[in-house]
Design a protein that fits this description.
cell membrane, nucleotide-binding, binds adenosine-5'-triphosphate, transmembrane helix, membrane, alpha/beta, P-loop_NTPase
């Protein structure tokens, strides 16, 4: 039923517009809104979803408009062929500009977009060939056969049709594999990278996508107005487009349409009233600028969230789909999977990890323990490619890795969890786990936009569902991940790591925050994984938990590997006792307070 709402709404607006009920002024206004909605839609994806604030989107509208103006006026090309050229030229420029821009972070990113927004404005205004500040006029109307689309109402059918199609494509893109990767970047890049996402690549994809939507808007604008000049493509227009996206609801598709409608209607009203109050001048620009700053500070969710509420979890046709995903071949038990050889990491003057050497074999659980600050997390980060070793090697299946990055480790089959859960709070629990299966899918942005990824998405969904069942989280599968307790978040991280189909999982304090029954379930799951041939490397501060599970323990202290062996050996190792307790074992035996009962710690367990 829900799927018919949009086409029906689209047809209603269309029928209303062409019926003669609306004045030609109103029809022209709706045309403007539809064209601006296209640009705002791109910004919804770029800014709202991808977290890249852009003030320069009007420049891409200009590129699209000028490309079609030059090709149709100067070279007599068909406007329809010029549409393809506008998209390609703008997309190409976006690719070049984006390659630099998307790597900027913090306030440098919006500053960068302002810089190229201004540059393009002056470029349009200074090139003789583009008509300088007078621009290009005499742009031909769009034609269908011999019929020229010159009527406002006819044009509206086209703009609404284009907008409707763009909405469908954008929705498809966002709900697919690439869209999920983009959405996952809102809460930081660590988790996404650990599951094979290349943040700058997916950011570049949405940057180019948003620019292409702007180019189509520019093309529609040029053939609607029949002339172009630099004015509508400057930084003022860029700020207005951004305001539309933020006001309507950055991140929400219909927020773009709502925002565009509100800003254009408001501008229309302000332009009629303000000159009476303040005299001639573009005072609405000041009001829009102030509104944008206030919105960015106080109500960045926008109005659509207030009207439509929280975004529903993406629904799938079946709760579990068909689990047909292929799995990696499991190496024989005790095959050395991950091996650290003489790893050293120096931070400034501090040696955080010094000559650490151990291996994690298939079908074994290895515990990495040590007091606070011993170097466990640093070792984890070295093993997963987050940090680069100062010296030493990380090997996988006996081969020293030349380049190690989180994405490469994920590709090899290393799944991980984080000491502080790195969860996408706005995404549903099941979508968080689907991110773990990112590398098990292949569909790119174009396939997703055209809806050709549904089969694959069902498989990824089925994988995620299975992992939620394994971790006992299927009841909260559709809840936003931000509503889970700490214990559930830890289990969610385990489920996400398993969705990768890992040969080895690295778990950083998986039992912290879990209740006794949850710990028991987790222990059962880890034993099951060991049985299946998966290797587990676990940092854990719950000594009972880790000692009861680990086949082998490595103990670090001040970055040095001070002991290794089985639980019994470690429990009675004097160097370990000394590291934890700061004194000879006998001293503590005498008062009955041994470290692994959880009492008296020198620097705390972790
Ligand atoms: N990025 C960094 N820059 C500088 N020093 C760091 C950095 N990361 C870790 N350290 C230092 O390296 C040492 C080892 O830290 P690490 O976090 O690896 O220990 P840990 O055993 O995981 O401790 P905890 O159990 O408290 O998490 C500490 O002294 C820490 O302050």
């Amino acid at each position: 039923m829900k799927r018919f709402v949009e086409p029906v709404a689209f047809l209603l607006v269309l029928a209303l517009a062409v019926s003669g009920v609306l004045s030609s002024f109103t029809v022209a206004l709706i045309n403007d809104i539809a064209i601006a909605s296209l640009v705002a839609l791109g910004l919804v994806v770029l800014t709202g979803v991808g977290g890249m604030t852009s003030f320069g989107q009007a420049a891409f509208v200009g590129l699209g408009a000028y490309t079609t103006a030059v090709l149709t006026v100067r070279y007599g090309l068909s406007p329809w062929l010029a549409l393809a050229a506008s998209i390609v030229v703008t997309g190409g420029c976006a690719l070049l500009i984006g390659a630099v821009t998307v790597r900027l972070s913090g306030h440098y990113l919006p500053l960068g977009t302002i810089a190229w927004g201004i540059s393009f404005y002056y470029l349009f205004g200074n090139i003789e060939w583009l008509g300088r500040h007078d621009g290009i006029s005499g742009i031909p109307p769009l034609t269908l056969g011999n019929h020229a689309i010159t009527g406002q109402k006819e044009y509206l059918i086209l703009t609404l049709g284009v907008l409707f199609t763009a909405i469908l494509l954008t929705r498809n893109l966002l709900r697919g594999r690439v869209g999920r990767a983009v959405r996952s970047l809102r809460d930081g890049t660590h988790a996404a990278e650990a599951f094979g996402v290349h943040p700058s690549t997916v950011k570049l994809i949405v940057f180019v996508f948003a620019a292409m939507l702007a180019a189509i808007a520019g093309w529609l604008y040029a053939h609607f107005q029949r002339s172009v000049s630099p004015g509508p493509f400057g930084i003022t227009a860029g700020t207005e487009y951004l305001l539309m996206a933020v006001l309507g609801g950055a991140g929400r598709i219909y927020g773009a349409v709502l925002g565009a409608a509100l800003v254009i209607l408001l501008r229309d009203q302000l332009q009629s009233w303000l000159p009476h109050l303040l005299g001639a001048g573009n005072y609405e620009t000041i009001i829009f600028g102030a509104a944008l700053v206030l919105l960015l500070r106080g109500a960045s969710d926008g109005l659509w969230a207030k009207i439509a509420g929280r975004e529903a979890a993406i629904a799938f046709d079946s709760a579990s789909g068909v689990l047909t995903a292929s799995r990696k071949e499991r190496p024989a038990k005790d095959t050395k999977l991950l091996e650290l050889r003489h790893l050293k990491k120096v931070f400034g003057g501090l040696i955080a990890v010094n000559d650490v050497t151990f291996a994690v074999p298939a079908g074994r659980i290895v515990g990495l323990i040590g007091p606070n600050g011993a170097g466990k997390s640093t070792t984890f980060n070295l093993a997963t490619g987050v940090l680069t070793p100062t010296s030493g090697e990380v090997c996988f299946c006996d081969e020293a890795l030349k380049t190690i990055s989180p994405q490469e480790m994920a590709r090899l089959g290393v799944g991980r969890s984080f000491q502080h859960p790195e969860i996408m709070t706005d995404m549903s629990v099941v979508e968080n786990v689907m991110l773990g299966a990112h590398l098990r899918g292949h569909a790119g942005a174009v396939k997703a936009m055209l809806g050709l990824d549904r089969k694959e998405e069902l498989v990824l969904h089925a994988i995620a569902w299975r992992m939620l069942q394994r971790t006992g989280l299927e009841k909260v599968a559709l809840s936003p991940a931000g509503t889970l307790s700490l214990g559930q978040l830890r289990l969610l991280e385990v489920a996400r790591a398993l969705a990768l189909d890992p040969l080895i999982v690295l778990l950083d304090e998986p039992a912290a925050g879990l209740r006794v029954c949850e710990k028991r379930e987790l222990a059962r799951l880890l034993r099951e994984l060991r049985q299946e041939g998966v290797a587990v490397l676990m940092v854990e501060h719950d000594m009972d938990f880790v000692m009861s599970l680990a086949d082998h323990l490595i103990v670090l202290d001040f970055g040095n590997q001070i002991a290794e062996g089985d639980a019994n050996g470690i429990r009675s190792n004097p160097r370990v006792l000394d590291a934890y307790l700061g004194g000879p074992r006998e001293q503590f035996l005498a008062i009955g307070k041994l470290p692994f009962g959880g009492l008296r710690i020198r620097r705390g367990f972790a």
